[in-house]
Amino acid sequence: MKRNIAIICGGDSSEHDVSLRSAQGLYSFFDKERYNVYIVDVKELDWHVNLDNGDVAPIDKNDFSFKLNGKTVWFDYAYITIHGTPGENGIMQGYLDLLHMPYSTSNVLVEALTFDKYALNNYLRGFGINVAKSILLRRGEENKYTEEEIEAEIGMPCFVKPAADGSSFGVSKVKNADQIAPALRNAFMECDEVMIESYLKGTEVTVGCYKTKTKSVVFPVTEVVTNNEFFDYDAKYNGQVQEITPARISPELTKALQDETSRIYDILHCNGIIRIDYIVTKNADGTDKINMLEINTTPGMTPTSFIPQQVRAAGLDIKDVLTDIVENQL
């Protein structure tokens, strides 16, 4: 009997359609001889399976099943590829835990923690992980600090971003204090908590990793080069970026980044594939300093996304990687 896999995508954030593209990528990667694979599109209360013939079948939320040709189909495993809520913040994971259904991401606590950038940074700082200086503002606290206080504390330029959301919408690079107020309005459109973070000038890189009971796999490092102000939506999804795998960095720095990625994976006790973004800056003595930017626990999975690129650069087959992840829990 082939096991039934649900690729859960969509979600309630601005990245809903991006998630659908990741789901199509995953659908193309999975081993169809081993698994029956279905795409489950979730948006608010509308949960349905997209069938091959173009029809949709509603999901019964009582047991996460659906009807196909008059018969009930139950899932054995959920591969979550929602970017944002409810798949990247622990909500979907809690639902699946109640159903005792294994899934591809980390658990509720880890998902909630990695989704909240400010909480994550302060947690990992206690383990010696380098992160940018930041302050947090909640809705209604827009005037908690003056623009002069923010500039004195964080410096200019700086980033204003949603503290608990994806990283593609609501992010602004602020170059002078009078841009802070409109940047805050932009970020608060996406989230009730906003982080103002110091700007780090350096080389932007990203590293994927997954572990099973029998292996630890850290992928090659990708260098991210864009002429945009930062790695924004257009850079990510509209090709305004160079993604160089493996990165044009020394073997020593490559190993240090991979070791740091593996260490953070273990500190958080992650599950499935994660991707960690970094900025490599220089210390006063000219040595490299690795600064963690954020952790993606449901990274993009289109054929051109970072993880499939890194899998190919490692000489691996994405089909085998996905099988590893599923079988690790079944």
Indicate the proportion of strand residues: 25-35%
Query: Which segments are poorly predicted (pLDDT under 50) over 5 or more consecutive residues?
Result: none
Averaged pLDDT, please? 92
Q: SSE order, as H and E?
A: EHEEEEEEHHHEHEEHEEEEHEHEEHH
Note the total helix count.
10
| Principal-axis shape | globular
What's the count of strands?
Answer: 17
What is the rounded Rg?
A: 20 Å
Distance between the amino and carboxyl termini: 14 Å
Short recap of the structure:
By secondary structure, the protein is an alpha+beta fold. The chain has helices at residues 16-29, 91-98, 108-115, 117-125, 147-154, 180-188, 233-237, 251-268, 306-313, 318-327, and strands spanning 3-10, 35-43, 46-50, 56-58, 65-68, 71-74, 77-80, 134-138, 158-162, 172-174, 193-198, 203-211, 216-218, 222-225, 242-244, 274-282, 288-296. The chain contains ten helices and 17 strands.
Structure description:
The structure is a single chain. Helices cover 29% and strands 28% of the residues. The longest helix is centred in the last third of the chain and has 18 residues, at 251-268. Strands 12, 13, 14, 15, 16 and 17 form a six-stranded antiparallel β-sheet that branches. A five-stranded mixed β-sheet has the order 4-3-2-1-7, covered by helices on one side. The model has no long low-confidence stretch (mean pLDDT 92). With 330 residues, the protein is an alpha+beta fold.
